[in-house]
Amino acid sequence: MSLTTGTSTEVNHSPGPASLAEDIHTPSLPSTAPPSAPSTKPRRALDRRARVHRAAHRLLSLLAAGATKSAAIVALLVLWETAPRLGLVDRTFLPPFSEVAAAWWELAADGQLADNTYASLVRSFSGFGLALAVAVPLGLLIGWYRPVAALLGPLLEVFRNTAALALLPVFVLLLGIGETSKISIVVYACTWPILLNTISAVRHVDPTLLKLAKSMDLSTPRLFQKVILPSAVPVMFTGVRLAGAVSILVLVAAEMIGAKAGLGYLINASQFNFAIPQMYAGIITISAIGVTFNQLLVAVERRLSSWRVSADD
Questions:
Q1: In the predicted model, what is the mean pLDDT of the chain?
Q2: Cβ(243)–Cβ(164) under 8 Å?
């Protein structure tokens, strides 16, 4: 078609040799478009699934460990509940656990349990704290200095073989039936486990560590701080945990003589009034306090001797 007619004509150009040469010899330019970033959504989903899986695995492990640890206690409670109901024991003297739990709730509701528990805890912790403050420094002194051990050794042997409850009438006669005698008997009973274990811990510190510390010209306070105390903590805490249990057990016996409050008083009064479920409720409360106190001491021990755990791991 001609240009004057207003129509365009299609012209087909066949590639010539020059254009083919250009196509062959002209390098193709790289694409300037930015590369597409890999999607992070699948990775986030995988991480989320992994976290959920680890959390579920940890929860199942904790539940399995808890079930294993509590199986014996659950079995004991089931036996306690069924034995009186089946007539295996006289339920007058050993009521079912459900009745004891109901009595415990009644004591807790009217405030008797809280008041008596508070009185016992104040006496027990006071005696335990005083024994700790006296026995640890004395044990370090006796364990480190041989002349002091030779001087006080025979006296310690005499008193450590004398039961605390055997001396309870002596404490009552000398100090009266008030708070002083009860706290004093707790101090006396708690001192010996802490003292003897502290002496043993100091005497069994690794001699190589001692020689190394002495070769660095450490002073005696620094030697105790850096070597002796960290090495002695595990053995010392064995005595501390024993003393924690003794502080509650001895106090209960002391509260049965001339006390007007405390768990020992509650148990004794319930026995005289033949309120047997209330008596067992007091006993259960003492057991729960002992277990809780022991777990607290175990946590403190792990905190103080965490360097040993990391070294073993």
A1: 78
A2: no
